[in-house]
Amino acid sequence: MSDEEPASIWMLPERQERSGPGRRPGYSREQITRTAVQLADAEGVEAATMRRIAGELGTGAMSLYRYVPRRDDLFDLMIDLAISEIELPRGGPSGDWRSDLTLLAGQTRTVGLRHAWLIPLLSSRPTLGPGLLRVNEFALGALDGLGLGIDDITGFAGMLNDYVHGAIRREIGWLEEARRTGLDSERWKRDYIGPYVRRVVESGAFPLFNRSILDSRTGHLAPEERFRRGLDRVLDAIAAFPVASGDGG
């Protein structure tokens, strides 16, 4: 790879802020990125093209490549700008690991639902911008006082991350289906999928599925309550780990 095609946008903070030798920048990466995020929020991530961004900024698309050379760079910048909206204590983890991870998970859900494109895009590409590194460091720091080795620390942080991202994607999927059909979640369940579910239940072919429909105490929880219930199970699993619970080394 040549010097003109760096592996990461984060390696070229200065060059991408200039519009030409000896000239002040006409735009900034942040301005371009914020415009891209606004387009993605309104129309989906596919709308965040250099042509559309340039139109919003009143310039030509080619001029923006001086700041953001590639579409992959734009995606990395968008992810990091959105992730930076996660609000965490300035002083770092409090020392109460469960409270800290609950806070992080809740903040991630808030931001992930605000930017419906974020978690799917993040899940599809490895990126390590400063915003994401800050969030990752907080998660690792929350677990660091439990007497765990670094592999277990990163493993538990990854397990938590997988749950949170999966839950957000599922919730976004429900919201998008409701928008597509014009039905809220309760009407969607009752009028759209409900008749089919009743037929499956009446067939008796899937007894455990029937139990999940007829006997479940959590099936009608609000999305935030369902998210918190699942999160508590993940945190319980961490707490049950021998070193984390103080039962061994």
What do these coordinates show?
The chain is mostly helical and 249 residues long. It folds into two domains: 9-83, Homeodomain-like (Arc Repressor Mutant, subunit A); 97-182 and 217-245, Tetracycline Repressor, domain 2, CATH 1.10.357.10. Helices cover 64% and strands 0% of the residues. The chain has twelve helices and no strands. It has helices at residues 29-43, 50-57, 61-64, 71-83, 97-114, 118-123, 130-143, 150-181, 185-203, 207-214, 223-240, 242-245. The chain is flat, with a radius of gyration of 22 Å. The N and C termini lie far apart (45 Å).
- What is the typical, i.e. mean, pLDDT? 89
- The overall number of domains is 2
Structure class: mainly alpha
The H-and-E topology, N to C, reads as HHHHHHHHHHHH
Number of discrete helical segments = 12
Oligomer: single chain
The N- to C-terminal Cα distance equals 45 Å
Radius of gyration: 22 Å
- Please give the share of residues in helix: 55-70%
Number of strands: 0
Beta-strand portion reads: under 5%
CATH class of the largest domain: Mainly Alpha
Given the C-alpha coordinates, what overall shape results? flat
Largest sheet: none
Stretches with pLDDT under 50, minimum 5 residues: 14-19
Q: Under the CATH scheme, which architecture of the largest domain would be assigned?
A: Orthogonal Bundle
